[in-house]
């Protein structure tokens, strides 16, 4: 029987040889399927600007179907769909403008946590850690987002005051 080539874009397979593959890859059906697949990853702003520049499709409005499908040069979007796209674009814009984590970027908070941890380890090795803990009883070695991880086994789960001492834990 021989090897078969499967085209993910067209959802079709055929006998794999140079002639058949070249004929398929240069075919109109393959180009349309490939274009439709790449268009499925466009962002909402590009879709909205393209749809607003098109006139509504009369056939689609009257019957709910259009023989041209996604290759129709007219718009198949309703006013509700366009409003939904506008809301999605606005939501994405707001999320991009807002800093994550209540004003602190994740990279900065991780760097702060690492620097505080290094200072804490240095104080612990010098014996001054007990003095510092008395001055700030809320000092924690664990970032807050680690406390919210569900279903961790007890040896791995952090506590609000710090990590458990796992020096005598046997694994296996």
From TrEMBL:
Location of the region described as Disordered in the Swiss-Prot/TrEMBL record: 90-172
Name of the protein described by the UniProt record: Zinc finger matrin-type protein 5
Keywords carried by this UniProt record: Metal-binding, mRNA processing, mRNA splicing, Nucleus, Spliceosome, Zinc, Zinc-finger
Organism encoding this protein: Anguilla anguilla (European freshwater eel)
GO MF assignments: zinc ion binding
Domain of life per record: Eukaryota
Span of zinc fingers (C3H1-type): 51-79
Any one cellular-component term (Gene Ontology): U12-type spliceosomal complex
InterPro entries in alphabetical order: U1-CZ_Znf_C2H2 (IPR013085), Znf_C2H2_sf (IPR036236), Znf_CCCH (IPR000571), Znf_CCCH_sf (IPR036855)
UniProt xrefs under Pfam families: zf-CCCH, zf-U1
All copies of domain C3H1-type, residue ranges: 51-79
Gene Ontology biological process terms in this record: mRNA processing; RNA splicing
Compartment(s) of residence: Nucleus
């Amino acid at each position: 029987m021989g090897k078969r080539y499967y085209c993910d874009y067209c959802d079709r397979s055929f006998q794999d040889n140079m002639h058949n593959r070249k004929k398929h890859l240069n075919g109109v059906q393959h180009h349309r399927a490939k274009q439709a697949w790449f268009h499925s990853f466009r962002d909402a702003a590009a879709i909205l600007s393209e749809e607003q520049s098109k006139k509504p499709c009369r056939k689609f409005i009257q019957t709910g179907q259009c023989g041209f499908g996604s290759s129709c040069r007219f718009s198949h979007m309703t006013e509700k769909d366009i409003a939904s796209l506008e809301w999605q674009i606005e939501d994405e814009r707001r999320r991009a403008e807002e800093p994550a984590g209540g004003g602190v970027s994740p990279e900065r908070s991780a760097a702060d946590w690492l620097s505080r941890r290094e200072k804490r380890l240095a104080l612990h090795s010098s014996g001054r850690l007990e003095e510092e803990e008395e001055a700030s009883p809320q000092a924690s070695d664990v970032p807050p987002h680690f406390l919210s991880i569900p279903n961790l086994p007890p040896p791995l789960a952090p506590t609000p005051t710090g990590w458990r001492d796992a020096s005598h834990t046997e694994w296996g």
